[in-house]
Design brief:
Number of domains of chain B: 1
Number of domains of chain A: 2
Structural class of chain A: alpha/beta
Largest interface: A-B, 28 and 32 residues
Structural class of chain B: mainly alpha
Largest sheet of chain B: none
CATH topology of the largest domain in chain A: Alpha-Beta Plaits
Shape of chain A: globular
CATH class of chain B: Mainly Alpha
Oligomer: heterodimer
Strand content of chain B: under 5%
Radius of gyration of chain A: 20 Å
Order of helices and strands of chain A: EHEHEHEHEHHEHHEEHEEHH
CATH superfamily of the largest domain in chain A: Reverse transcriptase/Diguanylate cyclase domain
Helix content of chain A: 40-55%
CATH class of the largest domain in chain A: Alpha Beta
Number of helices of chain A: 11
Shape of chain B: elongated
Number of helices of chain B: 5
CATH architecture of the largest domain in chain A: 2-Layer Sandwich
Distance between the termini of chain B: 41 Å
Radius of gyration of chain B: 16 Å
Order of helices and strands of chain B: HHHHH
Helix content of chain B: over 70%
Number of strands of chain A: 10
Chain lengths: 316, 118
Protein backbone atom coordinates (compact mmCIF):
# COMPACT_ATOMS: atom_id res chain seq x y z
CA UNK A 1 0.00 0.00 0.00
CA UNK A 2 1.55 3.30 -1.08
CA UNK A 3 1.29 5.81 1.75
CA UNK A 4 2.24 9.49 1.77
CA UNK A 5 2.68 10.88 5.30
CA UNK A 6 2.98 14.63 5.78
CA UNK A 7 4.27 16.16 9.01
CA UNK A 8 6.63 19.05 9.67
CA UNK A 9 8.00 17.31 12.78
CA UNK A 10 11.03 15.22 11.90
CA UNK A 11 10.53 13.10 15.02
CA UNK A 12 7.02 12.09 13.94
CA UNK A 13 8.25 11.34 10.42
CA UNK A 14 10.95 9.03 11.78
CA UNK A 15 8.47 7.40 14.17
CA UNK A 16 6.01 6.73 11.36
CA UNK A 17 8.77 5.45 9.13
CA UNK A 18 9.95 2.87 11.66
CA UNK A 19 6.60 1.84 13.07
CA UNK A 20 4.62 1.64 9.81
CA UNK A 21 7.38 -0.51 8.33
CA UNK A 22 7.02 -2.64 11.44
CA UNK A 23 3.34 -3.04 10.59
CA UNK A 24 4.20 -4.20 7.10
CA UNK A 25 3.70 -0.94 5.19
CA UNK A 26 6.92 -0.49 3.29
CA UNK A 27 5.93 1.73 0.37
CA UNK A 28 6.24 4.94 2.33
CA UNK A 29 6.87 8.47 1.14
CA UNK A 30 7.27 11.42 3.49
CA UNK A 31 6.81 15.14 3.07
CA UNK A 32 7.55 17.87 5.61
CA UNK A 33 5.18 20.51 4.27
CA UNK A 34 1.98 20.74 2.26
CA UNK A 35 3.87 22.18 -0.69
CA UNK A 36 6.39 19.34 -0.54
CA UNK A 37 3.48 16.88 -0.44
CA UNK A 38 1.77 18.39 -3.50
CA UNK A 39 5.04 18.20 -5.43
CA UNK A 40 5.49 14.55 -4.45
CA UNK A 41 1.88 13.78 -5.43
CA UNK A 42 2.46 15.44 -8.78
CA UNK A 43 5.69 13.54 -9.40
CA UNK A 44 4.51 10.11 -8.14
CA UNK A 45 4.95 7.47 -10.85
CA UNK A 46 2.02 5.53 -9.38
CA UNK A 47 -0.84 6.98 -7.33
CA UNK A 48 -0.73 6.94 -3.55
CA UNK A 49 -3.30 4.72 -1.84
CA UNK A 50 -3.47 6.45 1.54
CA UNK A 51 -2.53 9.85 2.99
CA UNK A 52 -1.63 10.66 6.60
CA UNK A 53 -1.79 14.40 7.19
CA UNK A 54 -0.72 16.53 10.12
CA UNK A 55 -2.88 19.65 10.53
CA UNK A 56 -0.66 22.30 12.11
CA UNK A 57 2.13 22.96 9.66
CA UNK A 58 3.77 26.23 8.69
CA UNK A 59 2.37 27.63 5.44
CA UNK A 60 -0.54 25.63 4.07
CA UNK A 61 -2.14 23.59 6.85
CA UNK A 62 -3.25 19.96 6.65
CA UNK A 63 -6.94 20.79 6.18
CA UNK A 64 -6.22 22.91 3.11
CA UNK A 65 -3.90 20.18 1.86
CA UNK A 66 -6.70 17.62 2.37
CA UNK A 67 -9.03 19.76 0.26
CA UNK A 68 -6.36 20.17 -2.45
CA UNK A 69 -5.78 16.41 -2.60
CA UNK A 70 -9.52 15.73 -2.81
CA UNK A 71 -9.82 18.13 -5.75
CA UNK A 72 -7.51 15.86 -7.78
CA UNK A 73 -9.88 13.43 -9.56
CA UNK A 74 -7.46 10.53 -9.08
CA UNK A 75 -7.69 10.95 -5.31
CA UNK A 76 -11.36 11.72 -4.80
CA UNK A 77 -11.87 8.47 -2.85
CA UNK A 78 -8.40 7.72 -1.53
CA UNK A 79 -8.29 7.43 2.28
CA UNK A 80 -7.04 10.59 3.98
CA UNK A 81 -6.37 10.17 7.69
CA UNK A 82 -5.70 13.31 9.68
CA UNK A 83 -2.95 12.54 12.18
CA UNK A 84 -2.83 15.43 14.56
CA UNK A 85 -2.53 16.70 18.10
CA UNK A 86 -5.37 19.18 17.41
CA UNK A 87 -8.43 18.12 19.39
CA UNK A 88 -10.70 21.08 18.73
CA UNK A 89 -14.17 20.60 17.32
CA UNK A 90 -13.65 23.15 14.57
CA UNK A 91 -10.59 21.29 13.27
CA UNK A 92 -12.46 17.98 13.32
CA UNK A 93 -15.45 19.50 11.51
CA UNK A 94 -13.29 21.26 8.92
CA UNK A 95 -11.26 18.11 8.30
CA UNK A 96 -14.29 15.97 7.50
CA UNK A 97 -15.95 18.79 5.56
CA UNK A 98 -12.84 19.00 3.40
CA UNK A 99 -12.78 15.30 2.63
CA UNK A 100 -10.97 13.52 5.48
CA UNK A 101 -11.81 9.84 5.87
CA UNK A 102 -10.74 9.54 9.48
CA UNK A 103 -9.14 11.57 12.26
CA UNK A 104 -6.56 10.17 14.66
CA UNK A 105 -5.24 12.27 17.51
CA UNK A 106 -1.68 12.26 18.81
CA UNK A 107 -0.54 10.61 20.93
CA UNK A 108 -1.79 7.59 19.01
CA UNK A 109 -1.26 3.90 19.41
CA UNK A 110 0.57 2.71 16.32
CA UNK A 111 -1.29 -0.60 16.14
CA UNK A 112 -4.58 1.33 16.31
CA UNK A 113 -3.35 3.56 13.48
CA UNK A 114 -2.52 0.42 11.49
CA UNK A 115 -6.06 -0.83 12.07
CA UNK A 116 -7.53 2.52 10.97
CA UNK A 117 -5.42 2.41 7.79
CA UNK A 118 -6.68 -1.11 7.04
CA UNK A 119 -10.32 -0.07 7.60
CA UNK A 120 -9.83 3.04 5.46
CA UNK A 121 -8.38 0.88 2.72
CA UNK A 122 -11.35 -1.49 2.82
CA UNK A 123 -13.65 1.52 2.59
CA UNK A 124 -11.60 2.85 -0.33
CA UNK A 125 -12.07 -0.37 -2.30
CA UNK A 126 -15.81 -0.34 -1.59
CA UNK A 127 -16.21 3.35 -2.40
CA UNK A 128 -14.26 3.07 -5.60
CA UNK A 129 -16.72 0.45 -6.78
CA UNK A 130 -19.64 2.74 -5.94
CA UNK A 131 -17.99 5.95 -7.16
CA UNK A 132 -17.05 4.42 -10.49
CA UNK A 133 -20.74 3.87 -11.11
CA UNK A 134 -21.74 7.31 -9.90
CA UNK A 135 -19.05 9.01 -11.96
CA UNK A 136 -20.05 7.07 -15.02
CA UNK A 137 -23.67 7.97 -14.37
CA UNK A 138 -22.73 11.63 -14.36
CA UNK A 139 -20.64 11.56 -17.49
CA UNK A 140 -21.95 8.87 -19.77
CA UNK A 141 -25.62 9.32 -19.03
CA UNK A 142 -28.25 7.30 -20.81
CA UNK A 143 -26.25 5.23 -23.27
CA UNK A 144 -24.93 3.03 -20.51
CA UNK A 145 -27.90 3.35 -18.20
CA UNK A 146 -28.81 -0.26 -18.23
CA UNK A 147 -25.27 -1.25 -17.20
CA UNK A 148 -25.08 1.30 -14.41
CA UNK A 149 -27.87 0.13 -12.22
CA UNK A 150 -27.05 0.12 -8.55
CA UNK A 151 -29.19 -1.49 -5.87
CA UNK A 152 -31.65 0.62 -3.92
CA UNK A 153 -29.61 -0.21 -0.82
CA UNK A 154 -26.41 1.35 -2.27
CA UNK A 155 -25.14 4.25 -0.10
CA UNK A 156 -24.25 6.23 -3.23
CA UNK A 157 -21.63 8.96 -2.85
CA UNK A 158 -22.93 12.32 -3.97
CA UNK A 159 -20.49 14.87 -5.32
CA UNK A 160 -20.60 18.63 -5.44
CA UNK A 161 -22.82 19.06 -2.38
CA UNK A 162 -20.69 20.78 0.29
CA UNK A 163 -20.81 19.00 3.65
CA UNK A 164 -21.89 15.74 2.07
CA UNK A 165 -19.69 12.85 3.21
CA UNK A 166 -19.78 9.05 3.17
CA UNK A 167 -21.63 7.10 5.84
CA UNK A 168 -18.44 5.71 7.41
CA UNK A 169 -16.87 9.18 7.47
CA UNK A 170 -19.99 10.48 9.22
CA UNK A 171 -19.60 7.79 11.89
CA UNK A 172 -15.90 8.66 12.26
CA UNK A 173 -16.85 12.33 12.58
CA UNK A 174 -19.28 11.62 15.42
CA UNK A 175 -16.77 9.30 17.05
CA UNK A 176 -14.13 12.03 17.11
CA UNK A 177 -16.57 14.53 18.60
CA UNK A 178 -17.33 12.05 21.35
CA UNK A 179 -13.59 11.39 21.96
CA UNK A 180 -12.95 15.03 22.71
CA UNK A 181 -15.98 15.23 24.95
CA UNK A 182 -17.88 17.37 22.44
CA UNK A 183 -20.71 14.97 21.91
CA UNK A 184 -23.19 17.78 21.72
CA UNK A 185 -24.58 16.72 18.38
CA UNK A 186 -27.97 15.66 17.15
CA UNK A 187 -28.86 13.47 14.18
CA UNK A 188 -31.79 14.07 11.85
CA UNK A 189 -33.11 11.45 9.43
CA UNK A 190 -34.66 12.30 6.06
CA UNK A 191 -36.62 9.85 3.96
CA UNK A 192 -37.71 10.18 0.32
CA UNK A 193 -41.31 9.03 0.26
CA UNK A 194 -42.23 6.22 -2.10
CA UNK A 195 -38.56 5.50 -2.78
CA UNK A 196 -39.19 2.06 -4.25
CA UNK A 197 -41.54 3.54 -6.87
CA UNK A 198 -39.00 6.23 -7.72
CA UNK A 199 -36.30 3.62 -8.05
CA UNK A 200 -38.39 1.30 -10.22
CA UNK A 201 -39.73 4.04 -12.49
CA UNK A 202 -36.52 5.94 -13.20
CA UNK A 203 -33.27 5.14 -14.95
CA UNK A 204 -30.16 4.86 -12.74
CA UNK A 205 -28.97 8.25 -14.03
CA UNK A 206 -32.27 9.94 -13.22
CA UNK A 207 -32.34 8.27 -9.82
CA UNK A 208 -28.81 9.47 -9.08
CA UNK A 209 -29.73 13.04 -10.01
CA UNK A 210 -32.83 12.78 -7.86
CA UNK A 211 -30.66 11.79 -4.88
CA UNK A 212 -28.35 14.74 -5.58
CA UNK A 213 -31.22 17.24 -5.83
CA UNK A 214 -32.74 15.96 -2.60
CA UNK A 215 -29.35 16.30 -0.85
CA UNK A 216 -29.22 19.90 -2.06
CA UNK A 217 -32.76 20.55 -0.83
CA UNK A 218 -31.94 19.05 2.57
CA UNK A 219 -28.94 21.34 2.93
CA UNK A 220 -31.03 24.36 2.02
CA UNK A 221 -33.47 23.39 4.78
CA UNK A 222 -30.68 23.41 7.38
CA UNK A 223 -30.49 27.17 7.05
CA UNK A 224 -26.73 27.56 7.38
CA UNK A 225 -26.47 25.30 10.42
CA UNK A 226 -23.05 23.63 10.65
CA UNK A 227 -23.96 20.16 9.39
CA UNK A 228 -22.65 16.98 7.82
CA UNK A 229 -24.96 14.92 5.61
CA UNK A 230 -24.73 11.38 4.34
CA UNK A 231 -26.86 9.09 2.16
CA UNK A 232 -27.33 5.56 3.50
CA UNK A 233 -29.26 3.92 0.69
CA UNK A 234 -33.02 3.17 0.50
CA UNK A 235 -33.77 6.88 0.07
CA UNK A 236 -32.53 7.61 3.61
CA UNK A 237 -30.28 10.50 4.53
CA UNK A 238 -28.92 11.47 7.91
CA UNK A 239 -27.51 14.81 9.01
CA UNK A 240 -25.39 15.53 12.08
CA UNK A 241 -25.98 19.01 13.46
CA UNK A 242 -25.04 20.83 16.68
CA UNK A 243 -27.25 19.75 19.54
CA UNK A 244 -28.30 23.33 20.19
CA UNK A 245 -29.95 24.63 17.05
CA UNK A 246 -33.03 26.46 15.84
CA UNK A 247 -34.19 23.79 13.42
CA UNK A 248 -37.82 22.75 13.45
CA UNK A 249 -38.90 19.51 11.82
CA UNK A 250 -41.99 21.10 10.24
CA UNK A 251 -40.08 24.07 8.85
CA UNK A 252 -37.35 21.87 7.43
CA UNK A 253 -39.93 19.64 5.73
CA UNK A 254 -41.65 22.67 4.28
CA UNK A 255 -38.38 24.20 3.02
CA UNK A 256 -37.30 20.94 1.40
CA UNK A 257 -40.65 20.74 -0.38
CA UNK A 258 -40.44 24.34 -1.59
CA UNK A 259 -36.92 23.74 -2.90
CA UNK A 260 -37.90 20.50 -4.66
CA UNK A 261 -40.97 22.19 -6.17
CA UNK A 262 -38.71 25.01 -7.40
CA UNK A 263 -36.42 22.44 -9.04
CA UNK A 264 -39.42 21.08 -11.03
CA UNK A 265 -37.76 17.68 -11.17
CA UNK A 266 -38.19 15.80 -14.43
CA UNK A 267 -36.61 12.62 -15.75
CA UNK A 268 -34.47 12.46 -18.88
CA UNK A 269 -37.64 12.14 -20.99
CA UNK A 270 -39.07 15.33 -19.51
CA UNK A 271 -41.60 13.47 -17.39
CA UNK A 272 -42.24 15.14 -14.00
CA UNK A 273 -40.90 13.37 -10.91
CA UNK A 274 -42.95 14.70 -7.99
CA UNK A 275 -40.81 14.11 -4.91
CA UNK A 276 -41.62 14.40 -1.22
CA UNK A 277 -39.30 14.03 1.74
CA UNK A 278 -40.21 13.23 5.33
CA UNK A 279 -38.06 14.73 8.08
CA UNK A 280 -37.69 12.77 11.31
CA UNK A 281 -37.41 14.22 14.80
CA UNK A 282 -33.97 15.18 16.10
CA UNK A 283 -32.22 12.29 17.83
CA UNK A 284 -29.91 13.13 20.69
CA UNK A 285 -27.18 10.88 22.03
CA UNK A 286 -27.56 10.03 25.67
CA UNK A 287 -24.54 10.14 27.94
CA UNK A 288 -24.85 6.46 28.64
CA UNK A 289 -24.71 3.62 26.18
CA UNK A 290 -25.22 5.41 22.88
CA UNK A 291 -22.68 5.10 20.14
CA UNK A 292 -22.47 7.01 16.88
CA UNK A 293 -23.92 4.25 14.73
CA UNK A 294 -26.87 3.72 17.08
CA UNK A 295 -27.74 7.42 17.04
CA UNK A 296 -27.55 7.62 13.25
CA UNK A 297 -29.68 4.49 12.89
CA UNK A 298 -32.26 5.82 15.35
CA UNK A 299 -32.52 9.06 13.37
CA UNK A 300 -32.98 7.22 10.08
CA UNK A 301 -35.50 4.79 11.56
CA UNK A 302 -37.51 7.69 13.00
CA UNK A 303 -37.74 9.33 9.55
CA UNK A 304 -38.72 6.02 7.97
CA UNK A 305 -41.45 5.45 10.54
CA UNK A 306 -42.85 8.93 9.91
CA UNK A 307 -42.86 8.35 6.17
CA UNK A 308 -44.33 4.85 6.33
CA UNK A 309 -41.23 3.36 4.70
CA UNK A 310 -40.42 1.09 7.64
CA UNK A 311 -40.30 -2.20 5.74
CA UNK A 312 -37.80 -0.90 3.18
CA UNK A 313 -34.58 -2.29 4.50
CA UNK A 314 -36.07 -5.69 5.22
CA UNK A 315 -37.57 -5.77 1.73
CA UNK A 316 -34.37 -4.48 0.09
CA UNK B 1 0.05 -7.17 4.46
CA UNK B 2 1.68 -8.06 7.76
CA UNK B 3 -0.09 -7.49 11.06
CA UNK B 4 1.24 -5.68 14.09
CA UNK B 5 2.16 -8.80 15.99
CA UNK B 6 4.21 -10.12 13.08
CA UNK B 7 7.12 -7.73 13.68
CA UNK B 8 6.97 -6.46 17.27
CA UNK B 9 10.74 -5.91 17.42
CA UNK B 10 10.64 -3.35 14.57
CA UNK B 11 7.77 -1.57 16.27
CA UNK B 12 9.45 -1.44 19.64
CA UNK B 13 12.70 -0.35 17.97
CA UNK B 14 10.85 2.54 16.30
CA UNK B 15 9.30 3.61 19.60
CA UNK B 16 12.65 3.31 21.42
CA UNK B 17 14.39 5.31 18.70
CA UNK B 18 11.78 8.10 18.86
CA UNK B 19 12.00 8.14 22.65
CA UNK B 20 15.79 8.47 22.48
CA UNK B 21 15.48 11.35 20.00
CA UNK B 22 12.88 13.04 22.19
CA UNK B 23 15.15 12.74 25.23
CA UNK B 24 18.14 14.03 23.24
CA UNK B 25 16.11 17.05 22.19
CA UNK B 26 14.93 17.95 25.70
CA UNK B 27 17.66 20.48 26.55
CA UNK B 28 17.45 22.27 23.21
CA UNK B 29 13.65 22.31 23.55
CA UNK B 30 13.92 23.93 26.97
CA UNK B 31 16.36 26.51 25.59
CA UNK B 32 14.08 27.27 22.62
CA UNK B 33 11.08 27.74 24.90
CA UNK B 34 13.06 29.94 27.31
CA UNK B 35 14.16 32.12 24.39
CA UNK B 36 10.58 32.43 23.06
CA UNK B 37 9.38 33.19 26.58
CA UNK B 38 11.81 36.13 26.73
CA UNK B 39 10.38 37.48 23.48
CA UNK B 40 6.88 36.98 24.82
CA UNK B 41 7.67 38.92 28.00
CA UNK B 42 9.78 41.74 26.59
CA UNK B 43 10.15 41.41 22.83
CA UNK B 44 8.80 43.87 20.26
CA UNK B 45 6.40 41.29 18.78
CA UNK B 46 4.90 39.26 21.65
CA UNK B 47 2.03 38.01 19.44
CA UNK B 48 4.46 36.38 17.08
CA UNK B 49 6.36 34.83 20.00
CA UNK B 50 3.07 33.50 21.39
CA UNK B 51 2.20 31.86 18.07
CA UNK B 52 5.64 30.25 17.86
CA UNK B 53 5.40 29.07 21.46
CA UNK B 54 1.96 27.57 20.84
CA UNK B 55 3.32 25.72 17.81
CA UNK B 56 6.39 24.47 19.70
CA UNK B 57 4.28 23.25 22.62
CA UNK B 58 1.82 21.66 20.19
CA UNK B 59 4.66 19.55 18.78
CA UNK B 60 5.69 18.44 22.27
CA UNK B 61 2.08 17.43 23.00
CA UNK B 62 2.11 15.26 19.87
CA UNK B 63 5.34 13.37 20.51
CA UNK B 64 5.61 13.13 24.31
CA UNK B 65 2.61 10.87 24.78
CA UNK B 66 3.86 8.40 22.19
CA UNK B 67 7.28 8.07 23.78
CA UNK B 68 6.25 7.31 27.34
CA UNK B 69 6.07 10.89 28.64
CA UNK B 70 2.32 11.09 29.07
CA UNK B 71 2.42 13.73 31.85
CA UNK B 72 4.59 16.01 29.75
CA UNK B 73 2.20 15.51 26.84
CA UNK B 74 -0.82 16.38 28.99
CA UNK B 75 0.85 19.49 30.40
CA UNK B 76 1.94 20.61 26.93
CA UNK B 77 -1.64 20.23 25.72
CA UNK B 78 -2.96 22.36 28.60
CA UNK B 79 -0.42 25.08 27.80
CA UNK B 80 -1.30 24.93 24.12
CA UNK B 81 -5.02 25.25 24.90
CA UNK B 82 -4.37 28.34 27.03
CA UNK B 83 -2.16 29.90 24.36
CA UNK B 84 -4.64 29.21 21.57
CA UNK B 85 -7.39 30.77 23.68
CA UNK B 86 -5.30 33.93 24.04
CA UNK B 87 -4.58 33.97 20.29
CA UNK B 88 -8.28 33.55 19.47
CA UNK B 89 -9.13 36.43 21.77
CA UNK B 90 -6.51 38.63 20.11
CA UNK B 91 -4.32 38.78 23.21
CA UNK B 92 -0.55 39.06 22.89
CA UNK B 93 0.06 37.26 26.15
CA UNK B 94 -1.69 34.25 27.69
CA UNK B 95 -3.38 34.22 31.09
CA UNK B 96 -1.21 33.97 34.20
CA UNK B 97 -2.43 30.41 34.79
CA UNK B 98 -1.13 29.39 31.36
CA UNK B 99 2.23 31.02 32.04
CA UNK B 100 2.43 29.06 35.29
CA UNK B 101 1.64 25.86 33.38
CA UNK B 102 4.42 26.75 30.95
CA UNK B 103 6.81 26.98 33.91
CA UNK B 104 5.60 23.58 35.10
CA UNK B 105 6.17 22.16 31.63
CA UNK B 106 9.72 23.52 31.58
CA UNK B 107 10.36 21.94 34.99
CA UNK B 108 9.05 18.60 33.74
CA UNK B 109 11.21 18.76 30.61
CA UNK B 110 14.30 19.59 32.69
CA UNK B 111 13.53 16.81 35.15
CA UNK B 112 13.14 14.30 32.32
CA UNK B 113 16.47 15.46 30.87
CA UNK B 114 18.16 15.10 34.27
CA UNK B 115 16.75 11.61 34.80
CA UNK B 116 17.89 10.57 31.35
CA UNK B 117 21.40 11.78 32.09
CA UNK B 118 21.80 9.41 35.04
Amino acid sequence: MKILAVDDDDMIIRFLDGSLRGLGYDELTFAQSAQDALEKIDAAPEPFECFLLDIMMPGMDGIELCSRIRSIPLYENTPIIMLTAVKEKQAIHQSFANGATDYVTKPFDITELGARIRVANMLFVEQRRSADKAFAAQTLKSQLDKDLSFPLSEPVLIRDVPGFIGAVQLENYMLQLSHIGMFKSAAIGFQINGITDHYNRTTPTDFFYLLTDVADAIFSSLDGTEAMLSYLGFGSYVAVVPRVNRLSTEEMQERIQVTLDDYELVDSNGKPMPTHVTVGPQTLGSLFGSNAKMILNRAVNAAQVHSGETALQEAG
Amino acid sequence: MAHADAMPSELSAAIADTRARFVDSLISTVNEIEELKKHLEAGPRPGSALRELAHRVHKIAGVAGMTGFARIGDMARSVETGMNRALREGECRPAQATLQQLENLLDMLEQAADEAAF
